[in-house]
Amino acid sequence: METPWFLVVATCLLAANPSIEGEAQAAQQTNAGNHPIPQIWFNMGAISTPVGHHSWDLLYYQPNPEWPSFMGRVKVVGMITQALVKIPDADLAKMAARLKQEHVALGIEMLAQAYTLPGAASNLHCGGGIEGYLPPEQTAALAAKLKRAGADLQYLAMDEPLWFGHYYSGKNACRSSIEDVAERVALNIREYQKVFPHVALGEMEPFPSITDQPHWQDDYREWQHAIHVKTGQPLAFTFVDINWGIQRWPASLQAFEKFSHTFQQPFGIIYNAAPPHAADTNQQWLDDAQRNFIHIEKTLGVEPDWAMFTSWDRFPGHAITDQSGPGEDYLVKGYLRFRGEK
Q1: H or E stretch including 202?
Q2: pTM of the predicted protein model
């Protein structure tokens, strides 16, 4: 069989960038065989731009799409709420069918908090323009959309509810109590649970923003308990969203790893890169992201249970490598090699 053109592109890109590939190979020799590969969450990214949409077409929409070998190591394909809103029903059905065929779970990165609580005094500005808020009736519509498409929703990853609901103090901040945040979350979670009763619930939170709080460990224990009580299930994981521009992030990450192990709660790391390099070139962003996971796992010795590959920056802008350049899959393949995958 002729080698697919997008694999040729990826091979050429690796050959053109031997320094970062050499780093990965050197790290692989130390890391291979020591620990199992973390569960991988692969986000599909942009759906509206031509290059972003092309990745969806390559994996799901075109007749008899080829399933790349690296996807055999992916446990969850993630979709942000904004993409779920935009995707046509027919395309969503194709995606759902393909994931089922390949035995890959679907996860939604959800806007988890309700703006208001039943019976509570309404604050007209609370949550307005702040990340992570969505009315329950819109969540219910999205759950119904997934059901119509024949999707099997298995995972939810909440978009930083503890941070934006409780700690955040910017414009229109709600500054809700932890119990209040959990109740706001539960209103939206229940809409998914009505349709997908066995869906697992996790979250993403920003670090070191969380560990910078003076009582963060007590707060997080309260948060874990409140979520369990309000939703009827414990947190299945927390993904650490690192602010790479803050120098103290390694200590923050290590502190949360230790904390998570104490409570035997799986934790994951979002492997990406940050400005200013994120605004330079696609290849530089990918190389920075690869250096980040090598540094975390080889130098710091942090072993996540999950590795999430996603970006909210300009780069890479698409999931699958094509004629426009390497996509997010470039990073996943590099990670698998680093972890000793042949």
Answers
A1: strand 200-207
A2: 0.90
